[in-house]
Structure formats: structure tokens, C-alpha cells
Amino acid sequence: MNVPFLDLTTQHKEISIDAHAAFERVFGKSNFILGEDEVRFEEEFAAYCGTKFAVGVNSGTDALVLGLLSSGIGPGDEVIVPAFTFIASASAVSMTGAKPVFVDSDEKTFTLDVDKIESLINKKTKAIMPVHLFGQTADMGRIMKIARKHNLKIIEDAAQAHGALYYQGAVKTASQGKKAGSIGDVGCFSFYPTKNLGAFGDAGIAVTNDKNIYRKLLLYRDNGRKSKYEHILLGYNSRLDTLQAAFLRAKLPHLDRWNDARRKIAKTYNTLLKDIVEIMTPMEADFSHHVYHVYSILVKNRDKVVGCLKSKGVGVMVHYPLPLHLQKAYKFLKYSKGDFPVAEKVSKQIISLPMHPVLTVEQVLYVTECVKNAVKQ
């Protein structure tokens, strides 16, 4: 049996009629830049997240860059970023002229270790960037307390967490939770096609409740434009295409159902793998409603296990094999091996198993049997 890591072809069949209608609607009106569907999607996604404003941009990376700039981050500033995440979290900081300062990961959730944040704060620190890794929120309550204490901005990297919830109290119901991206000063999302809510190309969005940040986001994404040929700051060409917004509007009503499917699949994986001592399955924190953008396990002899799984037709990936402080691109920051032991350990042991809303029970059973056999070998 072949089990792909992702199956967008099957998933997209569910929205085929609406996607074609979205294309025809935009094609017919020819309003390809900042058209009606783009404006409507911003309104709908802001409502979904529970924020006042949303600004569509051309990628998740740009959402981070413009979110940072709109929050006043720039040259000479420092932003605390987890060492274990995709490089865009840190490179967005670098693109503003600020310096990313890395922090280690929590051993159980792999999100940033909140206990290590305050020791990194100095006069240059201007923001914290919690990454809601793999679909699980960071511990935003504790992070917000630290930010308020030190007058820091919070830029949420929610690129992998569309629909994830953070719970402040002990009651875990949807009405008690806050959506990822809605808690800090700015929440930044990617709509890369593989995401829980993916476009049909590159796309992103930034959400906020701060009107001043919202106004700056509008300027930065459109060449600093105040009117057609009047520009009041140096901005970027980073507008969300109307066509991508139309496709995203077609998919947004399905997001919660697709996330529920991911959670059921994760529960099945957890049940089937729980007694395998060689495997550490994902932990859902008490404060989080995990949406499993990625379902990752830890194993020893990772490379051999990956090779075995691939030989059996199981599509697996590694998120991420090299933490940011050891990347050649960040050699100039002069971090060393051993600086962030949890991030380094996870990067050597992590494997991402197939995870998507149309994964069948038979496929999950096959994958778990292959995993069991691989780790035993």
C-alpha cells in the first residue's frame, strides 16, 4: 500500500464545484488585485479568528515581516524566536533589520520554553514571537504576562495553526478558547497549499485588533500607498491575489470539519502507538486545542526508520532536521552546538507521519503497523 504524506487531490474534490465557481466569479469581474473576494475574505477570516481586522498578503513570510514592521520592529531591535521552527520565523525578523534571539523548546510540546524567555530579555528586546508549532498553540497566557511586564510586542506565528485554540482556564470548550493569532498584537498565517487552510499557491494574512497596526499593514502591503500615486512610507508589493482569496473563501467553511478529522486521525495514531516504548507520540497541552497540521513522533535511529517506512510506501517527512541556530544562514549569530539541547534532540529524532483530513482508517492502520515494525528493527 502507498500512503502519501498529503493528498490534496482527494481533499479538493470536496470543494471542486465551489472552487470552479470562485474562478468564474473572479474571471468574470476581472478584479484580480484587491477585488471584492479579497475584501470579503479578509472580513470572513477576521471574524473566524475573532479579531477586528485582517490584511491579506502574498505569503506567510510577508505576514510576519509586515506584522513586525507594523509593530515598530526594526534595526537594532531584538526579537525572541524559538530555535526549533521553520526558518521563516527568524528570517522575517532579519528582514526588518532586527536580530532574532533564539530560545530552546519545551520537551513535551516542542513550542518555545516559556521558562527561558525572561533570561534573554534586555534593553534591545522589543518583541516575542511564539510559534504555534505543528498546530498546537504556545502557552500564550504565560507569554502575555511576560510581554506586559517588559512592555514587549507579541507577534504570533500561526502559520501552522489555523483554527487552533488556546484555553486560559481549566474548561476546554470552544466558547472558552481563543483562536491562535488573536491573542497577541499581530497574528500571522500562511496559506501555503499544504496548510490546514491552503490556497492554490502562495498566500498569507495578518490579523490584529490594533487599529494603528492595521493601518500600517495596509500601507506596507501596498507600496506605502495612501492614494494611487501618493506614498507615505517605503512599503512592499505584497497583496493577496483576489483569485487566491476567492479559493480560500470556498475552503474556509470546511476548515473546522477538516480540523476535526485531523484530530480524530491523531487520536487513532495515539491509541495504536501508545504502548510502543520506542516512540514518543505528540502531547496535547492542557491549554491547547491541537489541530495537527503535522503529526510528529520521536524515535531513535530516525534515519533508518525513515528509510524503512519509505520502502513500504509510507510518505514521511522530517520537520525539522536542523534547528535554526545551527543553520549556515545564521552562522553570523555565533551560536554553537549544545546551546539549545531540546531543539537539537528533537531535530535528530522527529518524524512526521501522513496527516490530512481524507486519510482513511485502513491507511492509518497500515502506517502504524509499518512504524511498529520499523522501530523494532
Key traits:
377 residues; alpha/beta; Aspartate Aminotransferase, domain 2; Aspartate Aminotransferase, domain 1; 2 domains; seven-stranded mixed sheet; three-stranded antiparallel sheet; 12 helices; 15 strands; globular
Give the SSE layout.
Elements (H helix, E strand, L loop, with lengths): L7 H6 L2 H14 L6 H14 L3 E5 L2 H11 L7 E5 L5 H8 L3 E5 L21 E4 L11 H11 L2 E5 L7 E3 L9 E3 L6 E5 L13 E5 L2 H11 L3 E3 L2 E2 L10 H10 L3 H19 L5 E2 L7 E2 L5 E5 L2 H10 L29 H9 E4 L7 H16 L1
Helix pairs in contact: 2-8, 3-8, 4-5, 4-7, 9-12, 10-12
Explain this structure.
The structure is a single chain. The chain has 377 residues and is α/β, with parallel strands linked by helices. It has two domains: 8-253, Aspartate Aminotransferase, domain 2 (3-Layer(aba) Sandwich); 254-376, Alpha-Beta Complex (Aspartate Aminotransferase, domain 1). It has twelve helices and 15 strands. The protein has helices at 8-13, 16-29, 36-49, 60-70, 88-95, 140-150, 211-221, 242-251, 255-273, 302-311, 341-349, 361-376; strands at 53-57, 78-82, 99-103, 125-128, 153-157, 165-167, 177-179, 186-190, 204-208, 225-227, 230-231, 279-280, 288-289, 295-299, 350-353. The strands form four sheets. It has a seven-stranded mixed sheet, with helices on both faces. Strands 7-6-13 form a three-stranded antiparallel sheet, with no helix packed on it. A three-stranded antiparallel sheet has the order 12-14-15. The model has no long low-confidence stretch (mean pLDDT 97).
